[in-house]
Write a structure and sequence with these properties.
The chain is mostly helical and 144 residues long. It has seven helices and no strands. It is 65% helix and 0% strand.
């Protein structure tokens, strides 16, 4: 069955609500992933890669799945800083820190070509994490 645009928007909103928690909802990375997968567009799949790589609750992380989806997104759009950032997080999650560092450097370079270079502090912070052989964990609510 075709999912209407309204349904997709609702699934997307629910994904964010479960990813971030708040407003009386307990954060649930698993439910967030389910809702984003139901939407299935590039942004939603990017959120899936991020959550599977960085969720603070280990039971919801899946570096292998994150890597598979993330590689596809980067193959489709290799200059997108978010795709690169997400894939770097996936590599860090599986313990491949040299790939994480390389991709994070590419993400920072790509970010500097966009109007969102004010986010570069976050990107630099993650690069430092990966250099120290540490995966990144999402602790604050995801931004929209």
């Amino acid at each position: 069955t075709l999912v209407s645009e309204n349904d997709k928007w609702a699934q997307f909103r629910l994904g964010f609500i479960y990813a971030a928690g708040g407003h009386g909802v307990t954060r649930n990375c698993g439910k967030a992933v389910d809702h984003f997968l139901a939407v299935g567009d590039e942004i939603s799949l990017g959120n899936v890669v991020w959550i599977l790589s960085t969720c603070p609750e280990a039971k919801y992380r899946d570096g292998g799945k994150a890597l598979a989806i993330g590689k596809g997104l980067v193959a489709a759009n290799s200059q997108d800083p978010t795709n690169l950032d997400n894939l770097a997080a996936a590599y860090a999650e599986i313990g491949d820190y040299s790939s994480a560092v390389d991709l994070q450097k590419q993400a920072i370079k790509a970010l500097k070509q966009t109007a969102e270079f004010d986010k570069s502090d976050e990107f630099e912070l993650r690069l430092e994490n990966y250099r120290q052989q540490k995966p990144y964990r999402e602790v604050v609510p995801l931004s929209q």
